[in-house]
Structure formats: C-alpha cells, structure tokens
Structures
1.
Amino acid sequence: MKSIVYLLWHSYESDLNEDEKFIGAYASEEDALLAIERLKDQPGFCYYPDGFDISECKLGQDNWESGFAIMTVIYVRDGKKFSCVTAAKHPDNIYEICSVDEGVSLEFKVGDFVKCKEFTLKPGVTDLLAIEKT
C-alpha cells in the first residue's frame, strides 16, 4: 500500500476573509493536477485560478503537530487615534496581541492579554477595542 497521498486544496482571500476548500486526496500528483484541470473553468474557481494547492501527505503520520489560534483584528488606542493589531482570541473574550506595526506607540504591546469591548468606529460596523490588560 502506498504511504503518500496528494491533497488538493483551493483557497482565496477577499474583503479580509479567507475561504479554503478541501477538494480531495489523490494517489498521485498527476491525479491531483488532472482534478485542477477539471475544476479550473468551473464557476468560482475560474476567478481564482492561482488558488489551487497540492500538498504531499504521509499516511499514518500527524501532519499538524501543534495547537492553533483563532486570529482576528482588534483596535488599540494610539493616543487619540486607534490602530489595528492582530490578536489571537482566547476564551472569555480575552485576546493576546500578536503583532503591531513598527514605530507605533500603543496602549498595549505584543504579548499582552487584553479584554475587549464592542464599539462602532464606522456606522453599521462593529469592531473590538482593547480596554484593559488582564
């Protein structure tokens, strides 16, 4: 029995959302490439032809060996303005700040765990604002 399969995925980004689809598992890379040929002109796929990805996967082996985080964007005060930062969502409405733009002096820094509250920066759009360190 062959111990390697080829996984075919399709993904694309639009409006800050990423959409990822698992297409199938194939016995050979050639079979996965043939699947792309069958799908590339179909609705949706034809708009994102570079979104196909084939990865080799060994059977009987973990292919994901660490945890995961739900990433989102939150706002942090920068004096009288607000700056977007990337944060990992934890239980109980706690967020861990993961990255900030260089040269920005924010109320909280990378590695801080913060509580957030909902606020409206633009009419009709609800965002999250870091309000206190936990």
Note: The beta strands are 4-14, 17-26, 52-58, 70-78, 81-90, 94-99, 113-122, 125-133.
2.
Amino acid sequence: MNLTERYKKLIENWICSMKEYVAEPFDRRELAYYGTGTDVWGIQTHMKGFSAHAVAAAAPDLDEARCGYTRGELIELSLKMLRFTLESHKTGSYHCTDGEDVKWGHHWLAALAIERMMHGVDAIDAYLTEHDRERLHDVLISECDYICDKRRVEADPVRPNVPESNLWSGAILHRVALMYPDSPRVDDYRRHGTALLLNSISVPSDAESTEIYAGRPMSEWFVGANFFESYALNHHGYMNVGYMVICLSNIAMLHFSCKKAGVAAPPELYHHFADLWRLVRTCVFDDGRLYRIGGDTRVRYCYCQDYLTPVFALVSDLVGEDMSGEENGWLDQLECETNANGDGSFLAIRCELMRERSPLYYARLESDRACTLSMMWLWHRLFGDIFEKSDKPSKRQLWQDAYHGSSYVRGERRMAAFTWIAAERPQGSVVPTCDSSMAESKFNLVSFIEGGGVMNSCSIKNHSEKLIDGGFITGGEFSYITSGLLEENDSSNENALNRLVYCALGDDRTVITLQCCRALRRCWLTSVKPLNLNIPNDIFNGETRDYIERGSSVTVDGKLTASVIYDGNDSSVRVERGTARTIGLQHISMPSGSLNNSIVWGDRGMLRVDKILIGGSDKPSWYDRGGVIFDFGAAISVSGEPVDCEYIREGELRAVRLVGADGRTYIVAANFARDTRTCELYGHTFEFDAENWYDVVVE
C-alpha cells in the first residue's frame, strides 16, 4: 500500500469513528460542529476536525463504505462545519456552544486554528457559495486587523517565549495578503507579518545580521530572540524539542498553500528553517518518532509528534531529502494503535478516561492527528512527485546548550542525552539508534524518590557540562521534594539531595553515571528507585521485553545492558515491571470532592513502562539526616553484554575506569564532598574544588 492510500484509509476510518462527536446546534440545523463547539480550544478542535472531513469529501477516490458517508453527505457535512466556524466568529450571526454571548476570535489561538484548517478550505473550494466566500473574507480580515492592532511583536529566549504564535500570526497575515491583495490594509498585513515571522525562529546573532528582508536588514527587524544561539528552545519552561516542530509545521502549512496557489511564499517564512531543521533532524528516529531530549509534559506520541508529519513533506519539497522511511515508520505506529482500538479512532483505548472526564481534550488529541494526516493525504494527492527524493544526509550529532544544561550525542549505534532544565527534570537517556521504542524520558536515569505527599518532583540546584570527543560529561545537584501532604501545617518537604555525574563516552556505546544521595532531614520515604532506567513495554514493541537478569546486570532485548559498577547497599540490578495495561490508563480512586487534574492525570495517556533499578524499595522507611539513601555507579551500554569496569570508592571519592568500545580508556571521577583536593587516580592527577568536582580523562 502506497503512502497516499495509507493516509486515505486512516482518515476514512477515523471519520466513521467520530460520528458521535459531530453535532448540529438545535436552533441552526444548517451548521455542525466537531467536539464541543466551545470557544478557544473547542473551536480550534472543531476546525481541525473540519479539515479532515473536508479533505476526505474532496477526494476523487473516496471509499464511502469505509468513512460511513456518501460523497454528497460528506460534502454537505463539511460545508456545515465550515459554516459553523464562520458564523460562530465575532463577525458572524451565531455563537459558540458556551452561550449566546460567546463568539470566538480575537485571541492568540485564533490564527493557529485558521492556519490548521486552511488546507481543508482549499480542498472544498469548488463547493463554496458566494456567501461562504464573503463570510470567509470577513473572518480572515477581522482576525488580521486584530493582529495588526493588538498583537505586538515580542520575543525572548526565556519569557515571553512566543516563537510558534509569532509564526502562525505572521503566516496568516501573509496568507490573507496573498488571498486579498486589494484589502485596504494589505501593506500593514505584509509589514507586521514580516516582523512576526522574522522574530519567530530568531536567535541573538540576528541583532547583527545584514541579511535583507523586505528591503531592510535583519538587524532592523530584530525585536528579540526566541531561540538560543544553539537553537535550543525554552518553551513552557523547559528544553522543548516538540515546539521546535510546531514552528516548522506552521511553515509547512503556508508553504503548501502557496504552492497550490502557484505563488511564492514570502522569503521570511523560511528564516532559519534550515538551521532549526538541522537540529530537529537528528532528534528523529528512522521510524519517524521524535526523540524528546528535553522530555514532554503531555500525552506520549501525540500533539507535537503529530505535527512532525507535515514537516516531513516540507523537508522533501524544500530540502530534497527522502523522508518516506520516516513517514512509513510513523504510519506503522499509528496503524498499530488504531488496529488495537478496533473502531478507526486513534486514541480511544489509551485515552478512554479522557473521553469520560474531558471530551474536549480527547477530541482535541484526535483532531491533531486527523488534521496532520489529512494535510499529508492532500499534499500527496496534489504534489506526489515532491516525495520522490534520494538525498539522505548524515544524522550524527554532538550538541550542547548551556541554559538548559542539555547535552546530546547521536551516532550510528547510540543516542544519548541529558537535560537539567527538562520537562520532568532532570532526565537522561540512552537508547540504541535503531530502536525508538526504548525511549521514555520521565525522570529517566536520575533515580527517583517519593515521600508522603501526593506529588513528587525535583528541584535543580546547580549543573555544568562539557563536550568531549564523541560524547559529553555533565554533573550537578538536585533535591527531591514531596508536596500535597496530609498534615495540615506542611505543604511540602525537601527530603534529599542527589549529586549526579553522567558521562556519554565517545565510543558510541556507553554511558556512565555516578550518583550519591543523602537525606537532608529526617524523612519518611515511601519509594526509592535508584537508577530508574525506563523501558517502555507497550503495544508499540509488541507488548513484550526479553530481560536477561544476571544480578549485576540486566540486558533488554539483546540491545541495551545496564550494569552496576559499585553500590553502597550491595544491591543487584533488577527489573520492576509496570503494572498498568499496555495501552490505556488505570482508574484512580479519589475521595469525593478531591478531584485534582494534576494528580489524577499524572500519567494521562501514558503507556506501560518497566524500570531497571539498582536495589531500591517501595517499603516506606525512615532515613536520618545525612544518611545515605543510595550511592552507586552504573554503566549502560547499547549492547547485549555487561560493561567491565574497575572502580575506586574511598570516602567521598569515586572513580571508574574502563576500556570503551572504541579501544580508548576512560576514567570518570567525582569528589562528592565538593571540597578542594588533589587526587592521583589511575595515573592521572585530578584537581577538585567546589565548582570542579567531577571530570573525565580519555587515554
């Protein structure tokens, strides 16, 4: 089955599965909406759902039996959905379902909703009436006037960090300027749109750039940098690879609209596209899954991952890179879950509790996937030849960003990363380059402790990092905090401090981590998980893992081995198997009236994860102040065999020596006392102090 047919089948099945989520207002039967029909996220969800229905309605080879509608019915429904969009806007004759006085529009999300639906409008253009075109014009002009009058250009690498909203706001201004060149404010749209686009994927050096856009050097357009010079993105307060993808996806939407119309997109749309893609490209597995080196706070393999799909099309057309392997690989994963659902939906089983508690959020997630797949279906129909490419550049990477304390290396065999300012911070990762199914970021490889509160997190105290040949080393301190305590006088407790060193050797195989954690107070800990190496075990890997447990090591599927080098508690390496289903959430019992989404939905849309631990316990215990909770060294290698290491463990001094897979000898050392001392270790002199308390030597 070719790619076009695969997209077609997924969308047709999805439309049939979503019939219960499509409704007509009782007092305006000529309109229809998908989802809840409410303002803000509701209307955006509806507009994405509309786009998928519209693309299917216009398909020359629509399978009516599969989608559950005749072509005429689907065209009529798509027009009803578009008309609900237009009439419930501030310029329209109707309203959203929130109430008779609630109309959507003139907010930061409106432009995005429009951008994500416009390929659907393009698809059914031949069926629009003159009145539809007038209403579309009124809505678009109204939103562009609002952006020009109210949406000032701002940008900052930390706060306000707005690269994606700058991009979609700038894109809609240029889109409307191209659609309605006789508009009275067309010059305002172009000028403000250019400023927004150029301050979207913007970096500090743009302030000095002489590159010309719209007759002026970049330095004159520059307002601020949303990205660091490294192209790291601090969106939602963490190192966010996902929102790099969101920015690129909005470039794709306007790019292909312009291509269909036979006009050139504004050059500023592509400002730093190639630079950002160069980084994102190395964070994409060969099967199309995104490697979230800074983690993810949302439902796994959704939203940002979905919007990577249109980026594949953009790269094929703009760069000439063959992305068909990534497309097919991602579709394999989607079909795996869709087949498990059995009804054509994308997420019905995994997000069944969302369907029950939040139909809007569930419909939103479904529509993100439907929207992006419908884009790809349409673009493959229109521009099939752009996907016939052969170029495949190297994806090797050695990258670092100081602000986030993020380091990343990708080789032929191993992908390894560590990020301090991460989504669930801090977190590390090491996976075989060939196997995306082993990547799960949540507090990965940093050990995890839980106290008596209902929420447990970490607070970063300090960190530093440096690159080495073919790898990196990073170290820092963080504390474990428990909050939401039952007792009335305490809201949270800071229980323990972990000093951690993490080194990705330059051998494209191995990671070494040294960790020493002590109690900061006499504390009651309910769970201690030293190492905490996450191994997803869900439908995407066939719901099974082959673990070889040797006591001192565990090997997973013959591809990844975790070995204990030393351990103060003389613990073995063990597998803690996940108790959740391989797909779907567990019901959580909560006292009546105590519902808190941050608690109940802590694992929303997550899949089953096993953990490799060095000892550890879920038995609640007391720990005295200053007491050692764990003290270990571990090696993780992308191979089927344990790593052979020597070690020194004297007082607060730790050192590990091993021969890497590249034949070089590595010595990783740490002084957990963080005092000033000179040490001779394995024939090398190490100068330690409070700031420089760890190092690596390569012989």
Note: The first strand starts at residue 22 and ends at 23.
3.
Amino acid sequence: MTVLATYKQLKEKGWNIADEHLREGLKNVKKLTGLFGRWDIVNTNPMLVLDVAHNAQGIKQLIRQIALTPHKKLHIILGMVNDKDHDEVLRLLPKDVIYYFTKAEIPRALPEEELANKASKHNLKGKSFMNVNAALYSASLKASKDDLIIVCGSIFLIGEISLKNIKSIWEKDHSSVSAFEFIDVLDFFD
C-alpha cells in the first residue's frame, strides 16, 4: 500500500492528519526514517550515487536514470547476494563501464571473485575488491570530477559504506598522502 493510499484510509477512519504534515513528511522521509539507497547523491565532482537496485526491474530503472545524468566515464561498484538471478541482472548492465566487483560482509554475499567471473561472461570487465569501501576508494582515485560513480546490487552493500569518510576521500590529494592521512585512509577500510 502506498503512503497516499494509507493516508486516505486513515483520513476516512477519522484520523486528524493535516495535508501539510503529509507534505513535510514526504519531503523529509530520508531524514526522518534513515532510509537511503534510491538514487542517493552523496557526493558531487565526481557524482557518487548509492542505489539499492538488485533485480532486473531496479537495474532497468537505474540504467534509465544513468542515461539522464551527464557524465564522462561511468564507474559501477557492484556487489550481490547469492540467491538472486545474477545473469538476469548482469545482462542488463552497460558494457563500456569501469567495474569494481565486491561483496557485503554477510553470509549470503556472492564472493567478489565469483561475481567478477559471472560478469566476464557478459563482457563486463573490472577488478575485485574485498569490501565496498576499498572499491569506493579505488574508484575515487580513478574518477575525474566529470565522472559518475554508482554503488549498487545490494541493500547490504549500501549499508556498509562509510558515509563519514566519503567527503574526506575527495578532499584529499591522493597523490601526496601524509602519514596522518594514511592512518585516516586505513580507518576508511574498517
């Protein structure tokens, strides 16, 4: 049931809910609920988007949104769980992309090397990373400010991204990391 259908039923049952409260709630749903993961832009220059797309329907929508988003190169950080139809999703993904294959730290996760092997059968090429934060760090080093980085494939993967470190990744000059910054970089992989 959608939010609006629920709202309508509650109003019919006599609940006193102002239209303005519904509008405010919908405008601030992420802040109020902590729910993230549908085309969440968490960085610009390069644009970093988190999306929990993990099945054919979600991936198709994600690809439509990517097509509407100006960018030079596309980087996709991808991790999936074992019990999904991997081939159905992988065949939909674009080929001319830099891929970073990874996994969430859960028992159901598809190992990153296995995902990379399955992806190669669909002509998707990239490298494997032990966790999503390592993949994200690598993408941050390779991406230019006009590129687009997408993290997708699993809600668990999105949940493991260290949001507190995302801003600091792009503030650093990766070519000259001091000893203190290196400690911060190591913290990023925890």
Note: Residues 1-35 form one domain.
